[in-house]
C-alpha cells in the first residue's frame, strides 16, 4: 500500500475549499516575504505548510485537481523525500522537458479562469511576466488575498521585535543629512514623491535597526518620502519609547505597517513618483500604478538612490568597520587554533565546530547576531557551495583532510564575513595545488590596481587568473558588497566576470567594501574557499587618470600547511609574506593566550 501523508492532504483540501469560495482556479505560493528578503520568517512559510518541503527555494502551484512544486537541483532528493505521499508533483527546474511555472500555467489555464497569489510576496517582474503571458488567454488575477490566513489556523505570528536607534556618532551621518541627499536625487529625477520598500535601505536612511529577518538587523517597513514629509510604516508594537522620541525629534511620521495600501489609495500624488521596480512587490506596484493613473502622474522606475549612498561608506563607518574586522579576525584565528589542537582528540562534527565559533564570536563586545548561519563543511561536503550542516545531519571532523568555515557576525560598528579552509590532517598534492592557486587569486585581486570607472567585471580576472592558468574555475561570483551593521549581501556593486547583455554594472568607488572569495570545488573530493573582505581605496592620480585599489579588512592567517611554494610565482610569495606580516601585526595585540600567540607566529612565518 502506498504511503499517504494525510496531514498535507488535509491542508490542501482546506486550501482548495477556500479557493472554490473565492473562485480561484490556480493558487501560487513562492518562498518570500513582503520585501524579498534573503531569509523568510516562519510566518511566510506557506509553501512549506501546504506541501511539506522546507528547502530555501521552491514555488507551489495548486489547482482543483493537481499540485506541483518547482525547485532547483540542490533540493531534488530532499523534496522527493519530504513530499512523499502528499500527491504533490515535483517539477525539477532546468531539467529537460520540465516546464517553467509560467509555461505550465499557460498550458493548463483556460479562458475565464483566475490565478491567485498574495501579491505582497510576488516580485513585480514575476507578476508582470505572468500577466503578459496569461492575459491573452483571458485569465484574470486575484492578488489581494493571502488564502493561508483562513486555512493555516496555527500560523506563527508575523515577526515583530523592538526596533532601536543608532546614534549619529555611530553612523557618521544623521538621518536629516541622508534625507537631504535623497531629496536632491528626487529633484534630479523630476519626482515629487518616493516609495522605498527595501528594508536595509530604509534602516540605513533612518539610522534605525530591527530584528524581523534572520541575520539581518532590519524591521519590516516601508517609507514614503516627499519634499516636506517622511512617513515610516512599521508595526506599532515595534516602536519603543526611544524610537518614538527619536522619530518625533527628527520629523519621521509613524504609521502602522499594515496601512501602506490604504495610505497609497487615499493619498493624492502632487507629481511623478520615484520607485524601484526590482524591490517593490507586485501588489504595491499595482496600487502605485492605479493611483498614479488616477492622479495623472507617472511612475519613475530608478534604482533606489539610497543603494549607492549606502554602499559608499563614510569615514566614520570605515573607521568602525576596520576596528571590528580586526577584532573579528583575532577571534576567528583563535578558533582555527582550537580546531587544530582538538581535531582527532575530542568529538567534533561540522555542527559542533560551527557552534563553537558562534559562541566565541558572541563573547566579543558589541556582538548583535550572526550575519548569516555559519557554513561548516568537511572534505567532500565543502564541494557543495550551498551545504548546510545541522545538529542531526553533520559529518564527523576527523584528523584528515580539510574543514571549510564561512562565517560572520554583525556588531555595533560593522558586519563581517570571512571564509577559511583549515587543514586538519593529511592532504594530497592536488589539493595543495588547488589551495595555493586559490590563495594566489585572493591575494592577486587584493593587490590589484585599476582605473576609475572599472566595475567588478573588469577586475574579476585578477582573482581567477591563477585558477584559469591550471584549467580551473568556480561557479559563483568573486565578490559582493557588505552592509554597515546591515545585510551581509548588498549591492549595487559586485565582482563577477561573466557578460550578461543588458545587465547593470556599478563602477567600484573608494569607500565601498567587497568580498574577495575565489575557490575550487571538486565534487566528491574537496572544496576550498578563501575569503577576505577588502576596502576600495584611492591609489594615485597620473596623466592617464585616477587609479584605485584595495586594502585588506580581514586579517586571518592562511593555512601554510596547504601551501606549496612550487605552485606560486615570486609575486604571489611576496604578497603572502606581506599579508602574513600584517596579520601578525594587526591581531597579535588582541590575543592574550601565549600558546595561541606562539602558534600565530609560526602560522604567519615567511615561506
TrEMBL record:
UniProt family annotation: Belongs to the peptidase M24B family.
The Peptidase M24 C-terminal domain, residue ranges: 546-607
GO molecular function: metal ion binding; metalloaminopeptidase activity
Alphabetized UniProt keyword annotations: Hydrolase, Metal-binding
All residue ranges annotated as the Creatinase N-terminal domain in the record: 11-137
One of the record's GO cellular component terms: cytoplasm
SUPFAM superfamilies: Creatinase/aminopeptidase (SSF55920), Creatinase/prolidase N-terminal domain (SSF53092)
Organism of origin: Butyrivibrio hungatei
This protein's name: Peptidase M24 family
Amino acid at each position: 500500500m502506498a504511503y499517504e501523508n494525510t496531514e498535507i492532504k488535509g491542508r490542501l483540501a482546506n486550501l482548495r475549499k477556500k479557493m472554490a469560495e473565492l473562485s480561484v482556479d490556480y493558487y501560487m505560493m513562492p518562498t518570500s516575504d513582503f520585501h524579498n528578503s534573503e531569509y523568510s520568517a516562519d510566518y511566510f512559510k506557506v509553501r512549506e505548510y501546504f506541501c511539506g518541503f522546507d528547502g530555501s527555494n521552491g514555488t507551489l502551484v495548486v489547482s482543483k485537481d493537481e499540485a506541483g512544486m518547482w525547485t532547483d537541483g540542490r533540493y531534488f532528493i530532499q523534496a522527493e523525500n519530504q513530499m512523499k505521499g502528499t500527491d504533490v508533483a515535483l517539477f525539477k527546474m532546468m531539467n529537460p522537458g520540465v516546464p517553467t511555472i509560467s509555461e505550465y500555467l499557460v498550458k493548463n489555464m483556460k479562458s475565464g479562469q483566475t490565478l491567485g497569489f498574495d501579491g505582497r510576496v510576488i516580485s513585480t517582474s514575476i507578476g508582470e511576466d505572468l500577466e503578459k503571458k496569461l492575459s491573452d488567454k483571458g485569465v484574470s488575477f486575484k492578488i489581494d488575498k493571502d488564502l493561508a490566513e483562513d486555512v493555516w489556523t496555527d500560523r506563527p505570528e508575523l515577526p515583530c521585535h523592538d526596533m532601536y536607534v543608532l546614534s549619529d556618532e555611530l553612523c557618521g551621518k544623521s538621518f536629516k543629512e541622508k534625507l537631504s541627499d535623497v531629496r536632491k536625487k528626487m529633484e534630479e529625477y523630476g519626482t515629487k514623491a518616493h516609495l522605498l520598500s527595501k528594508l536595509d535601505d530604509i534602516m540605513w536612511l533612518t539610522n534605525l535597526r530591527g530584528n524581523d529577518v534572520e541575520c539581518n538587523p532590519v524591521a519590516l517597513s516601508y517609507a514614503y518620502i516627499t519634499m516636506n514629509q517622511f512617513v515610516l510604516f512599521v508595526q506599532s508594537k515595534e516602536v519603543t519609547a526611544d524610537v518614538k522620541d527619536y522619530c518625533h525629534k527628527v520629523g519621521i511620521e509613524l504609521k502602522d505597517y499594515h496601512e501602506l495600501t490604504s495610505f497609497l489609495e487615499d493619498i493624492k500624488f502632487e507629481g511623478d513618483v520615484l520607485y524601484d521596480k526590482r524591490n517593490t512587490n507586485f501588489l504595491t506596484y499595482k496600487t502605485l500604478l492605479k493611483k498614479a493613473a488616477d492622479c495623472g502622474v507617472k511612475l519613475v522606475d530608478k534604482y533606489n538612490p539610497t543603494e549607492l549612498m549606502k554602499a559608499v561608506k563614510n569615514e566614520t563607518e570605515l573607521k568602525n568597520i576596520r576596528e571590528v574586522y580586526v577584532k573579528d579576525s583575532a577571534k576567528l584565528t583563535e578558533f582555527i587554533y582550537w580546531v587544530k589542537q582538538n581535531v582527532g582528540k575530542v568529538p567534533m562534527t561540522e555542527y559542533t565546530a560551527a557552534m563553537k565559533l558562534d559562541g566565541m564570536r558572541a563573547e566579543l563586545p558589541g556582538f548583535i547576531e550572526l550575519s548569516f548561519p555559519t557554513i561548516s563543511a568537511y572534505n567532500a561536503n565543502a564541494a557543495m557551495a550551498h551545504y548546510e550542516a545541522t545538529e542531526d545531519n553533520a559529518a564527523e571532523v576527523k584528523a584528515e583532510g580539510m574543514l571549510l568555515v564561512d562565517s560572520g557576525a554583525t556588531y555595533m560598528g560593522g558586519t563581517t564575513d570571512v571564509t577559511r579552509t583549515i587543514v586538519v590532517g593529511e592532504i594530497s598534492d592536488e589539493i595543495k595545488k588547488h589551495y595555493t592557486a586559490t590563495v594566489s587569486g585572493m591575494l592577486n585581486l587584493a593587490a590589484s590596481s585599476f582605473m576609475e570607472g572599472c566595475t567588478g567585471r573588469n577586475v574579476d580576472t585578477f582573482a581567477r587568473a591563477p585558477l584559469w592558468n591550471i584549467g580551473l574555475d568556480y561557479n559563483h561570483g568573486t565578490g559582493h558588497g557588505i552592509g554597515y551593521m546591515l545585510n551581509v549581501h548588498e549591492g549595487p556593486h559586485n565582482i563577477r566576470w561573466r557578460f550578461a547583455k543588458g545587465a547593470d554594472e556599478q563602477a567600484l568607488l573608494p569607500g565601498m567594501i567587497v568580498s574577495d572569495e575565489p575557490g575550487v570545488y571538486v565534487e566528491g573530493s574537496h572544496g576550498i574557499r578563501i575569503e577576505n573582505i577588502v576596502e576600495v581605496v584611492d591609489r594615485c592620480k597620473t596623466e592617464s587618470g585616477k587609479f584605485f585599489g584595495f586594502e585588506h579588512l580581514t586579517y586571518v592567517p592562511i593555512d601554510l600547511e596547504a601551501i606549496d611554494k612550487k605552485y606560486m610565482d615570486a609575486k604571489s610569495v611576496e604578497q603572502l609574506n606581506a599579508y602574513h606580516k600584517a596579520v601578525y601585526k594587526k591581531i597579535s595585540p588582541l590575543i592574550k593566550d601565549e600558546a595561541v600567540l606562539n602558534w600565530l607566529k609560526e602560522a604567519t612565518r615567511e615561506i
